[in-house]
Amino acid sequence: MKVYYDDKVDAVYIQLNSDTPEGVVEIKEGVNLDFLPDGRISGIEILDASKKIDLKTLLTYTIDEEFVSSLAHL
Questions:
Q1: Distance between CA 8 and CA 11 in Å, rounded?
Q2: From residue 28, how far is each of 19, 25, 47, 73 by CA, in Å?
Q3: Helix, strand or coil for residue 4?
Q4: Can you tell me the distance from the alpha carbon of 34 to that of 16, in angstroms, rounded to the nearest whole number?
Q5: Integer angstrom CA distances of residue 12 from 15, 29, 41, 45, 64
Q6: What pTM does this model have?
Q7: Beta-bridge partner residues of 13
Q8: What one-character-per-residue DSSP string does 9-66 give?
Q9: 11, 45 in Cβ contact below 8 A?
């Protein structure tokens, strides 16, 4: 998963995989889902993003202790 933010147009795109979407459905004004031919969601676009979500929490990540512990066993 990759998250992109374009501050010039205030849009967020959450790319769930690298496959090319076949279609898009607007589920709410300014919120679009990209779909693959098999019906899976491949991306989420949010327009006027700063008005709809807290960008600080979206563009951060957390690595939990269990994940870190699993790396020690590699």
A1: 8
A2: 23, 9, 10, 45
A3: strand
A4: 10
A5: 10, 14, 16, 6, 25
A6: 0.76
A7: 4, 45
A8: TTEEEEE--SSPP-EEEEEETTEEEEE-TTS-EEEEEEETHHHHS-HHHHT-----HH
A9: yes
Are the C-beta atoms of 28 and 36 separated by less than 8 Å?
no
- Give the model confidence (pLDDT) of 16-74 as tens digits: 999 999 999 999 999 999 999 999 999 999 999 999 998 888 767 677 777 777 776 65
Q: Are strands 23-28 and 31-35 parallel, antiparallel or unpaired?
A: antiparallel
Q: Is 19 exposed, middle or buried (0-12, 13-18, 19+ CB in 10 A)?
A: middle
